[in-house]
Amino acid sequence: EPFQAEDGPGLRLTYVSPDGEEGYPGRLRTTVEYVLSDDDELRVVTEATASAATPVNIVHHSYWNLAGHDAGTILDHELVLRASHYTPTDATMIPTGEIASVRGTPFDFTNAKTIGRDIGQLPGDGAGDPGGFDMNYVVDGGADEFRLAARVVEPTTGRVMEVWSDQPGIQFYSGNFLDGTPGKRGASYPIHSGLCLETQVFPDAINRQGEPGWPNTVLRPGQIYRHKMVHRFSVE
Description:
Low-confidence stretches: none
Mean pLDDT: 96
Radius of gyration: 18 Å
Shape: globular
Order of helices and strands: EEEEEEEEEEEEEEEEEE
Number of strands: 18
Strand content: 35-45%
Strand order of the largest sheet: 1-2-3-4-18-12-11-6-9
Distance between the termini: 35 Å
Largest sheet: 9 strands, antiparallel
């Protein structure tokens, strides 16, 4: 459903997941609004209600290459993540339950650095995992506070993208499984040709409820799930 917000055109999408779909309890009604603002923002606001207690963690998973969709890899993009901690994973990519400091690890983006600088420290296993970044970060700041989570700069064009959110975590993914899939106007998307920055509740939080530092991910009847994510674009 198209609509006109005060600051730009928008699109509202609604989906109703019936009780038991994919094994989840309760009827979940979800609405997502996308707005392209007059201030060069892409605003994504998600809300959901449920008829029974159920885990809810709805994530926007777009790929970005600020040099252009057919401009090669994102390894020269400079990234800052406002996150001094992350949630390490085991060999199957499931969080171990630890909330660890990024200091001294290749996951440290508290100061600007290119994505390619330390990616070689995260090699594949030769058995299907190509390596690279695919990690949840704990965004600095208070719970539910709308704040800057990430900033990306493409050095040749000067394009800047900031990601703001009210969520506790952000997943940084460096396009490790892109494999040359054909895209628009005949472009090919090889490994690392796009990046994702997905604001979210921590993965596997449903199995960590009540543990220190782990956020709630259960939506109960009468409550409203809300998730606001804003991409702000500029040039420097």
